[in-house]
Amino acid sequence: MEPLQRRPLWYAFVTRPRHEKKVQTYLEQIAIEHYLPLRRTLNQWKDRKRWVDSPLFSCYIFARIAYIERYRVLEVPSVARIVGFNNQPTPIPDADIEAIRLILTTKQEIAVVDGFLHGQLVEIKSGPLHGMRGRVVDFRGSRWVEIHIEAISKAVLVDVQENVIRTIDT
C-alpha cells in the first residue's frame, strides 16, 4: 500500500475570481489531472444573448494530486490557496467528484448554494441519479434534493419529483 502522502487524491483549490479557465489551461500545460465542472448558461447583454460554459463553483477547481505535490498547483498563477481545515488540505472523496460529473450529464435543472445541510436525508430511487443521497430542501416553490460537497461547503440542488425519492433512516 502506498503512503497516503504519495497517493493521488482530489483537492479543491481556490482561484482568483473569473480565473478558473485560465488555471485549467495552466494545469493542462503542466500535466496535472484536474476537473473544472462547467455548466451551460444563457448570458444576456444589452445587444445580444449567448450560451457560455461557466464554472459550476465560482473560484474553485479540483486537482487530483499527491499531497506532497500540492505546491505544483499552488505555484500556478491565479491559484490562491488549497481548501482545508485546521491548516491541513482536505481531500475530496472520489464519489463526490463522480457525483458532480453525473449531475452535469443530466438534463435536469441545477442550482448551487452555499451553506449547510437542511431538511431530511433522502436517496433518489430511480432515474439517472439513482442511488445518490442528499437532503430535501424547498427552493422557489418546488422540491429539490441538495447534494452537499463538504470539503468546499457548497451544495448542488437537483430538481427531482417527489415520487423518485425515499427517506433514509438515520
Give a nutshell description of this structure.
16% of the residues lie in helices and 43% in strands. With 170 residues, the chain is α+β, with helices and mostly antiparallel strands. The mean pLDDT is 83.
Your description of this structure?
- The chain has 170 residues and is an alpha+beta fold.
- Helices cover 16% and strands 43% of the residues.
- It is built from three helices and 15 strands.
- It has helices spanning 20-29, 70-74, 94-105; strands at residues 9-15, 33-35, 38-44, 49-55, 60-65, 79-82, 84-85, 88-89, 91-92, 110-114, 121-124, 133-139, 142-149, 154-159, 165-167.
- The chain has a six-stranded antiparallel beta sheet, with helices on one face. Strands 1, 2, 5, 6 and 9 form a five-stranded antiparallel beta sheet that branches. The protein has a two-stranded antiparallel sheet with strand order 3-4.
- It is globular and about 50 Å long.
- The mean pLDDT is 83.
